[in-house]
Amino acid sequence: MVDESGLRTVLAGKVRLSRLHPFRVIVTTVALTSAAGCVYFNSLYNANRLFKQGVSELDEGREATGRATLGSAIEKAQPIVANKPNSRWADDALRLIVRARILREDWPEAAEASQELIGYARSAKDTAEAVGYMAQAQLRLGNPALADSLLTVALGLERDEARQTDLLVDRGRARAEIGNYQGAYGDFEAVSAARPDWVTPRIDQVRLLVDSGQGERGAEEFEALLRLPLSDREERTVVELAEHVAAVDTKATADGLIGAETADLLPENRAYLVKMRADAELALGDYERARADLYLTTTVAGDSRSAAEAQATLVRMDLRQLTSVEVFDSLMTIMDRVAAQRAGRRSSEVRELHELMVKVDFWISTGALGYLLAAETARDLLEAPRLARHLFLTYAAENADALWAPKAILAALYLTPLDSDPAAPGGNDGPSAVELRERLLEDYQDSAYVQAFFGGVGAQFTFQELEEGLRRQLERLETMADQELRARRSGAVQPSGGAGR
Fold first, then answer.
1. How far apart are CA 107 and CA 191, in angstroms?
2. 3-state secondary structure at position 284
3. How many C-beta neighbours within 10 Å does residue 482 have?
4. What is the pLDDT of residue 416?
5. Are 442 and 466 in contact (CB under 8 A)?
6. In Å, how far are 18, 311, 335 from 302, measured between CA atoms?
7. Quick count: other Cβ atoms within 10 Å of Cβ 396?
8. Phi and psi of 436, rounded to 5°?
9. What is the mean pLDDT of residues 320-333?
10. pLDDT digits (tens, 9 = 90+) for 210-247
11. Any alpha helices (H) in 178-324, and if so which ranges?
């Protein structure tokens, strides 16, 4: 509420203004309008400057900083639209807001702002741009059918070829989501033909082909993709694509990553992709190529985690074939070295394998029931059946009178081919299946283990009593192995490397 003196002041001001020359009133009014215009012009200038800065930061991989800078650009532009919606700067400010929202992936806000931008359209070009932005937002909001329709409208209006390819990429994605694979592939193919060095549509194309069961074509496109120059962000996306392909199609992974070692990528990413190719080859049963690629991984980036894991995989491959403790000792030496490397310490795969091998190494050096526990671990966790069989038979040979000797022989029998040649009982693989059965029936017919397997009654101890007694003793050995592992980690015990066996 204005008091009497205040009212007089306002009235006096009006009187003084009315006495001014009309020209001076006009000049004053224009000056005030121009001043307001300068404020909004400066706001738009600053908003554009911040927008460009935010885009550069995103391109450099500084995601958090870029998003924050784009947020500042939006804050500068919003008052223009809110306070001067009919000004000549409003549409430019709103367009900047839409683009910044899209880059920030603020999809609901981007959809709302793009719908408002359509109202500012004064030409087919303006309409195509605004509708394209809305479609982009709707696609990310989980409305691919609507996005497909909007993009088709925008493509019908758009005449700029560069912008057309942008729209085709999004329409290809929308069509892929609604199951129109042929239409999606046609859009991606058109983009790649128009802009062969553009990485984004090729990534989408590979994903589409693999997901739709066209792994062979997907592998060809992936191989071509790896020959393109990639930005840091594109390189990260290509690595993520490889992980997706590996989860969907093993054969496409092995074929699509051919040439990964020569791709224009960071060494650790090249090593990662070559290791991924080797894993796919292993899964396909191509052990020769897999072994070659695992060795290649260690040369592409020798200090990378992929290299350490490749060495661990090579050790696992050798564990499947070895039949003697001496060879296990040499593999133990390799794993001690790999686990001591920085990359090895960072890998759960390397740590897990090394810890298992340390325990097996300890139990072998302990002897007696240690052989039995080492054999079970080799069979169940190391996937080393031939070593497990050797250790079961070693325990039985050195402890022939033990209650658990027949259990060890039975375990070895399970790991022995049924068609092994009884005429050749010796050799590296030990006795045949027939010999092991005969030995059990002749020497251990009174054992509960044998009777449970072949049938019979009257054993001195029941099967359950034998198993409970064995488990109590093996638990003690497991505790001792855990102590050995902790001692090695602390440096109190040096790796034995199988010495003294």
1. 24
2. coil
3. 14
4. 83
5. no
6. 86, 10, 15
7. 25
8. -65, -40
9. 88
10. 988 889 999 999 998 999 888 888 889 999 999 999 99
11. 181-194, 199-211, 215-225, 232-248, 250-256, 267-283, 287-300, 305-319
